[in-house]
């Protein structure tokens, strides 16, 4: 038997059937037929560049000095923001309001968004430093800031989220989702880029944490592994399609601690200073200062402890 006969894969038939699946039977392409998609590899490179610009000593070049660090940050940002603008241009095509825009119009819009995003980086870094400090203060096993920056999955996930949330607010939800899903794959922590998270936020251990799109988290909040801030129900419209964008996830006020395995569902409010115990299933609001454990709610426990 010749090589051509032994390697007869029947490719013509396979290719024809795949085309039929792709174009007629099981279409997955965008309704407007968009073929130019954002690149996951490019976005990974962008996040790497942003991390290096924000924390050059930890994520940047190994031989930086006081004299060279600003040059390194500047050149890294210039190349990274240029790559970001191109990925933004590709992502904008998926928004209905840009359906009829020309390529030049999309380039102009993408540059403006990337520039605005770059201007927010000092503020994002300040938030991230507050998160790192919260991790150091909240974990007795933490030896120093470098360990937290290089080793803590919760900090990595929150770093991605801070960047993604900024892009989400600037009107690039697809790119924002890419960034958070990259962190999700690496850490097992799933934070929707739409979630609003205040400063000094710490996820300890982290694996299995889920934070939904409309969740609002206050300042100095600490979560442990396998915590879910999710939706209780998914309302549908008259045609049976899920209604998008409704506020359906919890509001967690300042200084709340939620221990491992807790599940909080729906648009409920966890009052300031409350403690939610491990493996609690909660679908209603609790007032400030509450302590909830396995179905028991004791209001004001933490306030009483503070007075004693």
TrEMBL record:
Top-level EC class: transferase
Disordered: region residues: 287-308
Its EC number(s): 2.3.1.30
SUPFAM superfamilies: Trimeric LpxA-like enzymes
Keyword list, A-Z: Acyltransferase, Amino-acid biosynthesis, Transferase
GO BP of this protein: amino acid biosynthetic process
InterPro entries, A to Z: Hexapep, LbH_SAT, Ser_AcTrfase_N_sf, Serine_acetyltransferase, Trimer_LpxA-like_sf
Gene3D superfamilies xref list: Hexapeptide repeat proteins, serine acetyltransferase, domain 1
GO molecular function annotations of the record: serine O-acetyltransferase activity
Compositionally biased intervals (Basic and acidic residues): 296-308
Catalysed reactions, semicolon-separated: L-serine + acetyl-CoA = O-acetyl-L-serine + CoA
CDD domains registered for this protein in UniProt: LbH_SAT (cd03354)
Amino-acid biosynthesis among keywords: yes
NCBIfam families assigned to the protein according to its UniProt record, in alphabetical order: EPS_EpsC
Family: Belongs to the transferase hexapeptide repeat family.
Protein name listed in UniProt: serine O-acetyltransferase
Protein species of origin: Trinickia violacea
């Amino acid at each position: 038997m010749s090589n051509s006969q032994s390697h007869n894969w029947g490719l013509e038939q396979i290719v024809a059937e795949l085309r039929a699946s792709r174009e007629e039977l099981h279409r997955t392409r965008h309704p407007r037929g968009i073929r130019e998609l954002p690149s996951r590899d490019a976005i990974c490179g962008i996040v790497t560049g942003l991390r290096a610009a924000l924390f050059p000593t930890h994520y940047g070049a190994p031989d930086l000095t006081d004299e060279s660090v600003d040059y390194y940050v500047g050149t890294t940002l210039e190349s990274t923001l240029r790559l970001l603008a191109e990925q933004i241009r590709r992502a904008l095509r998926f928004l209905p309001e840009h359906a009829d825009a020309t390529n030049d119009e999309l380039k102009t819009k993408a540059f403006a968004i990337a520039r605005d995003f770059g201007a927010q980086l000092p503020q994002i870094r300040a938030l991230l430093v507050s998160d790192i400090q919260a991790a150091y203060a909240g974990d007795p096993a933490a030896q120093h800031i470098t360990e937290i920056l290089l080793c803590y999955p919760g900090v990595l996930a929150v770093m991605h989220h801070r960047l993604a949330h900024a892009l989400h607010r600037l009107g690039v939800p697809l790119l924002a989702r890419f960034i958070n899903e990259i962190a999700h794959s690496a850490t097992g922590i799933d934070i929707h880029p739409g979630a609003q998270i205040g400063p000094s936020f710490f996820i300890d251990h982290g694996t299995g944490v889920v934070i939904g799109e409309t969740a609002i988290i206050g300042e100095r909040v600490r979560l442990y592994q396998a915590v879910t801030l999710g939706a209780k129900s998914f309302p549908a419209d008259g045609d049976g399609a899920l209604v998008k964008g409704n506020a359906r996830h919890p509001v967690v006020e300042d200084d709340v601690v939620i221990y491992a395995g807790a599940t909080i569902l729906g648009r409920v409010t966890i009052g300031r200073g409350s403690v939610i115990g491990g493996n609690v299933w909660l679908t209603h609001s609790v007032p400030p200062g509450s302590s909830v454990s396995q179905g028991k709610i004791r209001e004001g426990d933490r306030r009483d402890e503070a007075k004693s």
